[in-house]
Amino acid sequence: MRRIKITVMRKARYDDLIALYENPIEHACDLTEGQIFFCDGWKKPEGFCDSAWESVSPFVMTLAYGGEDIYDGWMKKKKSAMISCNDGFRPVSFLIETCEE
Asked: What proportion of the chain, given as a percentage, has pLDDT over 90?
């Protein structure tokens, strides 16, 4: 099983949608751009958002178990994926990569 690196690449925030549809939430997302997590296989890294993990974990598992070239040529680097969490108000984009050792 391969070790996987997850990097927080970008955080977006849609204040217009928040104002229209969301009830106030404290600490909706405590991740920061540039933050890095490592995981061995299926185990969620310490401090990683539960909701975001649900979005990225299938891709983490695929790469950890040797999968590559997800969606046939989608990524320039075959052993990686760019996945966003499922928060429609403040999505976070993650770069998921196989650690080359």
From this structure: 82
Own/partner contacts of 15-20, CB < 8 Å, gap of 24 or more, are 17/88, 17/89, 18/89, 18/90
pLDDT of residue 40: 85
- The predicted pLDDT at position 28 comes to 84
The number of beta carbons lying within 10 Å of the beta carbon of residue 10 is: 13
CA proximity to 11, closest of 94, 91, 79: 91
pLDDT of residue 33: 97
Q: Which of 97, 86, 80 lies closest to 6 in space, CA to CA? A: 97
Continuous segment of H or E residues that includes residue 46: none
What average pLDDT does the segment 37-45 reach? 89
CB 89 within 8 A of CB 76: no
Q: How many residues does the chain have?
A: 101
d(CA 37, CA 23): 30
